[in-house]
Amino acid sequence: MHDDTIQDDSATHPAHTALSSHSRFSVVAASDCGRRRKVNQDRYFADTHAGVIVLADGMGGHNSGELAAQIAVDGVSSRLMQRAAAGSDKARNDDLPIASLLTQALDEANADIFTRGQDAEHKGMGTTAIAALLNGATLHAAHVGDSRLYLYRRGELQQLSRDHSRLQELIDEGFFTVRDSRRSGIGHVLTRALGNAASVSSDAIECELEDEDVLLFCSDGLSDLVDDWQITDTLGECRGDLARTCRKLIDHANRNGGTDNITAVLARYEDA
Question: Which of 9, 46, 54, 75 has its CA 20 to 30 A from that of 106?
Answer without folding.
Answer: 9
